[in-house]
User: Fold these one by one.
Assistant:
Number 1:
Amino acid sequence: MVETEAPRPATNTGPGRLLIAVYLLFAIAATSRAGLQIATRFAEAPVAYLLSALAALVYIVAAVGLARAGHAGRRVALACCSVELVGVVGVGLLSLADPELFPDETVWSGFGSGYGYVPLVLPVLGLLWLWRTRTR
């Protein structure tokens, strides 16, 4: 008797829906924060504020990729989660090593400490979910 493997869930089902919701929540938070900072205090810390805007863009595109659930959506989500993880670790390390590089916090400063370290955990969860839902 040949056992067939149960089909893998799509990225936009089950726990994936919660992941998409958190990405959307962070997209709104980061977009709002970056928009306000760029509009009112851009000259004070342009790199920090542009990094927050980049984080917002990554969150938006990751949410869309996870929600699409097809092959292209998975590839987009994988790229976004990877960029996000590299970004939060890189900016986190730089913000601790040389705080003067970022006169004001970004979403990823201190490994996302201003957001309860969710920016550090979120891409890991995203990558794990993409791994869990991969096709064989």
Number 2:
Amino acid sequence: MKNIDDLVDSASDLAQRGLSKGEIADELNVSRETASWLVERSGTGTEPETSDDGGPHDIHVDWSAVGRDSNRLYHAGAAMADLLSKKGDDVDLTIGIEKAGAPLATTVARELETDLGTYAPTKHQWDDDESETTDGSFSRNFAQIRDRDCYVVDDTITSGKTMGETIDAIHEQGGNPVACVVLADKRGVGDIRGVPVYSLLQVIRVGSDGDS
């Protein structure tokens, strides 16, 4: 995607296909506020949350050149696994955050010889009325937590809310999240909920609104 109009068109298409704003945010690798703004710009939504200058402050990360090619995706996942390779001695489970984190977690799990689990976060159900959303969930089709040490894998960190939710959900299942890894960290965080975060790329915004 080369400009804002491409993002607006994509948001419109996804909204017309019935995706929630949370799912649109996930698909476009933007914040929920940005997703809401893009849908409104496309004429298919209601009034979004915006910043004082009329638009949200965000950075779009387009990693489709990696995602659409299985060979590139494997090597990206292998690099993420390398970042985790010396973090924890007894980790035998990798949790991928759906949707985009799951294929990356598959490679990480293979490289580090762990079981594979997936977590569907609450944001996928978010639209205009957050009171109607339900909790996230672990897929029963994959490995379960069962009090195990684990890694957490996603594609990007925008606000850190989804990663934090996943860490909390793992703790609720009796698990111990040892480390998190993402392709790109838009916040430059060192840890979330006390769990270290590693990334292949850190995106730092430099401007009047600060460094994040």
Number 3:
Amino acid sequence: MRREHFTLDVTNIDWAETDGEPKKPSVAIDFTGPEAMLRERLTGPDGDVLEASETDAALRLQGPLEDDTEGVVSVTNRITGEFILELNEDAGDVLQFIRAARRYGETDGDEGQYRVEITLDGEPFVSYDKRTFLVYDDEGSLLRQHSLIPSGVEL
């Protein structure tokens, strides 16, 4: 699978910058590549689609945070550590999304602080409510202050 096969669209984040009414931040990822490969990666050994708790989302910066840098957004299988998908995005945009998700979590006792929806050629495939989004610098070190980590979770 190529990163070019993925497009990402983010909604419900502007309210956090303008102190508007809180809305759950959402990211839609559409995949236009070979469908069978992504379906296989999103399916566990039992044949069922992976649950939200079986996946992790992360941003790996490609340069220093102070620069306008790109990053690689990834979703991985928490059990096996294998990458499910990766795509390039502007790091500033992803960090803005994480800030909105953090603010949403402070205002709403909801289980998930953001939603991820993955579609295959525009057709809904899976939707996850997530609470964690890890951010790593370009050397692979966790940036806790930029990550979305629920209270009580130790890494």
